[in-house]
């Protein structure tokens, strides 16, 4: 798996927030590569999750990569604050950015890796003009806003299209896939060309989250 440049990023949205410190300790011990942190504003998505103070505390508790997925409108207003809170990767939604190119430059200028997320209905080719500027493309395999939904099968084709586009433009962006990922469908997602598997409920609702993370890494 290491040869294929693939990573597992558990999403803390599905963790036990009352025991967040323990959950992060478990992830530190585990084979998780990144911590995926889902920020929702109740406007871009119909749900509200957690924000800057929580991420600041998580940052202090882990040395692993903090992969922040912003499901918020006007992300440019908060990019600097997320840098201060400790984000290593900051991903904004294509659908939330009128001036996407500017947003990407802002994130990189602040010293973070820049990601762009696509909702299930958004075609991959819309990223052609920024593909060489970004570090990560996040393909949503469910509609954003909630954990525990089913993987949308059409996503596999989108991952393949994204891989083709990256090859065509000789770009370096990683492909991250988010939503409905299980130990069972992980291999087909990686085979389609993904690099990063986000998993929330599959990890945290399992009896042995550490073992589930290892199983995802072995996919
Ligand atoms: C959904 C979030 C996901 C979510 C995935 O809007 O972006 O990261 O936590 O949860 P599962 O893995 O349960 O689908
Ligand atoms: Zn996410």
Describe it.
The chain has helices at residues 20-29, 52-61, 79-85, 100-109, 155-168, 186-191, 201-204, 209-217; strands spanning 7-10, 34-40, 65-71, 89-93, 113-118, 136-140, 174-178, 196-199. With 219 residues, the protein is of the alpha/beta class. It has an eight-stranded parallel beta sheet. Helix 2 (52-61) runs parallel beside helix 3. The longest helix is centred in the C-terminal third of the chain and has 14 residues, at 155-168. The termini are close together. D-xylitol-5-phosphate binds at residues 11, 13-14, 36, 38, 69, 142, 144-149, 178-181, 198-202.
Concise structural overview:
The protein has 219 residues and is of the alpha/beta class. Helices cover 32% and strands 20% of the residues.
> What does the largest sheet look like?
8 strands, parallel
- Extract low-pLDDT stretches: none
Instruction: Write down the secondary-structure element order.
Output: EHEHEHEHEEHEHEHH
The set of bound ligands, ions and cofactors reads: D-xylitol-5-phosphate, zinc ion
Secondary structure: number of strands: 8
What is the number of helices? Answer: 8
| CA-atom Rg in angstroms | 16 Å
Helicity range: 25-40%
Shape: globular
End-to-end Cα distance: 8 Å
Strands of the widest sheet, in order across it, are: 1-8-7-6-5-4-3-2
Structure class: alpha/beta
Percent of residues in β-strands: 15-25%
Q: Residue-averaged pLDDT, rounded?
A: 97
């Amino acid at each position: 798996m290491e040869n294929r440049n693939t990573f597992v990023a558990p999403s803390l949205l599905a963790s036990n927030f009352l025991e967040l410190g323990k959950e992060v300790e478990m992830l530190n011990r585990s084979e998780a590569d990144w911590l995926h942190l889902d920020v929702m504003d109740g406007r871009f998505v119909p749900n509200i999750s957690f924000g800057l103070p929580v991420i600041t505390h998580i940052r202090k508790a882990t040395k692993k990569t903090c992969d922040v997925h912003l499901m918020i409108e006007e992300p440019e207003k908060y990019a600097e604050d997320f840098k201060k809170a400790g984000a290593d990767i900051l991903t904004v939604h294509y659908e939330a950015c009128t001036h996407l190119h500017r947003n990407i430059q802002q994130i990189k200028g602040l010293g973070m890796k820049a990601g762009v997320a696509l909702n299930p209905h958004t075609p991959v080719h819309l990223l052609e003009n920024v593909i060489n500027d970004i570090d990560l493309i996040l393909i949503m395999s469910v509609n954003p806003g909630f954990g525990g939904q089913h993987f949308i099968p059409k996503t596999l084709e989108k991952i393949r299209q994204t891989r083709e586009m990256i090859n065509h433009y000789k770009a370096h962006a990683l492909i991250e896939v988010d939503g409905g990922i299980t130990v069972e469908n992980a291999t087909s997602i990686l085979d389609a060309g993904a690099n990063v598997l986000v998993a929330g409920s599959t990890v945290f609702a399992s009896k042995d989250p550490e073992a589930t993370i290892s199983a995802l890494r072995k996919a």
